[in-house]
Specification:
By secondary structure, this protein is of the alpha/beta class. The strands form seven sheets. Strands 2-1-3-4-5 form a five-stranded parallel beta sheet, sandwiched between helices. The chain has a five-stranded parallel beta sheet with strand order 9-12-15-8-16. The chain has a two-stranded antiparallel sheet with strand order 6-7. The chain starts with 12 loop residues before the first strand and ends in a 5-residue tail after the last helix. The chain has helices at residues 21-33, 44-53, 70-79, 95-103, 116-128, 131-134, 177-189, 206-216, 234-242, 259-262, 278-290, 316-321, 327-333, 347-365, 376-382, 388-402, 410-413, 440-454, 459-466, 470-482, and strands spanning 13-17, 37-41, 58-63, 85-90, 108-110, 149-150, 153-154, 196-199, 224-228, 243-244, 256-257, 267-271, 292-293, 302-303, 307-312, 336-339, 371-372, 407-408, 425-428, 431-434. It is 42% helix and 15% strand. It is globular, with a radius of gyration of 24 Å.
């Protein structure tokens, strides 16, 4: 149930789109029992029509790649200018889908069971989230990449002396001269239509740089559409890129616009482009040269006006030499080459970003007053950061969640000592674990143990703290019992 002590609209209006009749009836029943007004649309077309004529506090979309793709809905909804908060409900645990829908501006991504408790939590979070924040993950507003804030107002520095910047998916926060030069170069070429090839290790922020380019371009008011070329098999990727007509292949029950069409007038990000199958590369090259796409099963080319930004974490020239990537496509994409340095080469950014993420998650989880213990920053600076900024962000979030006192310790962060000697050890819970054997499995068990301790053994609350479903937590605990461990 939605807590009554939290201020909320007198009548919450929701729109439920897609899914089976049984799913819609069950979800509608849960929401109606909470006093929420529910409007139901069986498909995307009707859902978008209802959105264009009515105002809703929250939209729930039941994701199904075969009948209603949530990514298509989010793109269409954003292009229509409607500011409703969107929650995606998906029957399967597709991590690529979850990451992508959140990048496109969805407020939440939820797997079954969609119980009254889960739906109540989702609705409560939605009505407490300002629309500006709920929709910041989609189209870029072109704001400065460094915005300090307190609540909804711009402010100066915090008491700790570090400026708390808003995390927006198009922002790039840095104090590194090398990154500043890269951003200046990107800003200088942003207003052209030249294709850009962004190279960098995983977690360095390649998509952030692509969004930055879009925000600084003349296309900032147009759509920004992203497609992960590594996440789909060749046949599906071709349909996603170029679209298909109804009946083009088995399962094509309706016409579908491809990402090129959806991005027309804006920017299309081809993430991990070097993972694209070789035959499909030739079709991509033709689109880049001709400025038109052929839908699968279509008879007439469709003109598109798209600015292409491609990213990769691979050495493209090596892929060309190995015959895995077309040389002509490489030259067509590499008009503006941009290479993001890894975090280990940007020492100036480690402390700066650590404080930035800490202050963000302190606000996010309501754990005010937290700061780092004295020895934490020295250890963070010594790490090699194979996962780059993404790894740093995840570790800081973990530390904020697990901290029990006023300081975030190394034990809270669950990071091993950098470059440990033979006798170096790491404290984890009540056990002392040799640093060389401190692995992901140990970290997982310790996080589950702490989450259960923090919540007094309440599995539902512990799962929410860990960011997983209750079912996943239950399965983990069953695994541990088989290993003879009782948490």
């Amino acid at each position: 149930m939605i807590p009554t002590q939290v201020s909320r609209p007198a009548e919450i209006k929701s729109l439920l789109v897609g899914g089976t009749l049984k799913e819609r009836l069950e979800i509608q029943g849960h929401l109606s029992a909470m006093g929420i007004d529910v409007t139901v649309a069986p498909d995307m077309d009707m859902g978008l029509q209802l959105l264009s004529k009515n105002s809703f506090h929250i939209v729930m979309v039941i994701h199904d790649p075969d009948t209603l793709d949530a990514l298509d809905f989010l793109a269409a909804q954003r292009n229509s200018g409607d500011p409703a908060r969107v929650v995606v409900l998906s029957r399967k645990a597709a991590m690529e889908d979850a990451a992508e829908v959140m990048k496109r501006g969805a407020l939440d991504f939820r797997l079954p069971p969609w119980s009254a408790e889960v739906l109540g939590f989702v609705v409560q979070r939605a009505i407490e989230t300002p629309l500006a924040k709920a929709n910041e993950g989609g189209q870029d507003t072109g704001e400065s990449r460094r915005v300090a804030f307190k609540g909804d107002r711009c402010e100066g520095k915090s008491q700790s002396g570090h400026t708390p910047e808003v995390i927006r998916r198009h922002e790039i926060l840095t104090r590194s001269p090398a990154m500043e030069r890269l951003l200046k170069q990107a800003e200088n070429v942003a207003k052209s239509k030249a294709t850009c090839l962004i190279q960098g290790e995983s977690g360095t922020g390649k998509e952030l740089l692509a969004r930055f380019i879009h925000a600084k371009s003349d296309r900032a008011s147009g759509p920004f559409v992203a497609l992960n070329c590594a996440a789909l098999p060749e046949t599906l990727l071709e349909s996603e890129l170029f679209g298909h007509e109804k009946g083009a292949f088995s399962g094509a029950v309706m016409k579908k616009a491809g990402k090129f069409e959806l991005a027309s007038g804006g920017t299309l990000l081809l993430d991990e482009v070097t993972e694209m199958a070789f035959p499909l590369q030739a079709k991509l090259l033709r689109v880049l040269q001709e400025g038109e796409v052929d839908r699968l099963g279509g008879t007439t080319p469709i003109p598109v006006d798209v600015r292409i930004v491609a990213t990769t974490n691979r050495d493209v020239l090596s892929a060309v030499k190995e015959g895995k990537f077309r040389e002509d496509l490489y030259f067509r994409l590499n008009v503006i080459p941009l290479k993001i340095p890894p975090l280990r080469e940007r020492k100036e950014d480690i402390e700066f970003l650590a404080h930035h993420f800490k202050e963000y998650f302190v606000r996010e989880y309501g754990k005010n007053g937290l700061d780092f213990a004295e020895d934490v920053m020295d250890e963070l600076k010594k790490r090699k950061w194979a996962g780059n900024v993404r790894e740093l962000k995840n570790i800081i979030e973990r530390g904020v969640l697990l901290a029990t006192g006023e300081k975030i310790t190394l034990q809270d962060l669950l990071v091993e000592q950098a470059d440990p000697g033979e006798d170096s050890t790491v404290q984890a819970g009540n056990d002392v674990i040799p640093a060389g054997t401190f692995n992901l499995s140990d970290m997982e068990k310790e996080m589950v143990k702490r989450a259960l301790s923090e919540t007094g053994g309440n599995r539902t609350h512990a799962a929410r703290l860990l960011g997983i479903s209750v079912r996943t937590l239950r399965n983990k605990l069953a695994e541990y019992r088989k290993m003879g461990l009782v948490l």
